[in-house]
Amino acid sequence: MKIWQSGLLAAMLPIGLGAAPPVPLRAAIFGFAFDDTSLQGELQGKRPDEQLRLTHLDAQLKDLLTRSGCCTAVDLAAVADRARNSDLQACGACALDMARQVGAQIAVTGWVQKVSDLILNINAQIRDTESGRVLSAGSVDIRGNTDESWSHGLAYLVRNRLLTPDWEAGR
């Protein structure tokens, strides 16, 4: 179907404009998990500011990926409770199963690890739902536990690790 879609788009382009851009993939973009391995987290538990940053990171990832034209986000309502209550990094293929259930071609998962208030890293991966193959993945270390550092870190991760020319060529 992908070949047919690309061929159809190419046929619709006026002569001389070149090849059609790739058809955006249907993406299940799951929310970020938070792995607080810091002493502070162990002693004080969840912090409201970090939970809010996770929510903002979820929205930013969805926005960055869809605005790039690589994908369109599918509605996750049918699997939202299951996704929220699963550790998508440790559950085997559960993210792929949920992504298939909602008709996605790719599954996007991510997690933030907090080592301390100064050292955090943001991780994400994009997997093909049919084969399970990792299409793209990356990690970025950030310094500082602020709204700005999280946002800049994710923008860098998407731009320089996830949406690379290698991934675009291989999709």
Please provide a written account of the structure.
The protein has 171 residues and is α/β, with parallel strands linked by helices. It has a single domain, classed as ABC-type transport auxiliary lipoprotein component (Rossmann fold). The protein is 43% helix and 26% strand. The chain is built from seven helices and five strands. The protein has helices at residues 2-12, 39-44, 48-68, 80-84, 94-101, 147-162, 165-170; strands spanning 25-36, 71-73, 106-114, 119-128, 134-143. The chain has a five-stranded mixed sheet. Strand 3 and strand 4 form a beta hairpin. The two termini are 13 Å apart.
Summarize the structure.
With 171 residues, this protein is of the alpha/beta class. The chain contains 7 helices and 5 strands. The protein has helices at 2-12, 39-44, 48-68, 80-84, 94-101, 147-162, 165-170, and strands at 25-36, 71-73, 106-114, 119-128, 134-143.
Say what the CATH topology is: Rossmann fold
The helix fraction, in percent, is 40-55%
**Name of the CATH class:** Alpha Beta
Tell me the span between the first and last alpha carbons.
13 Å
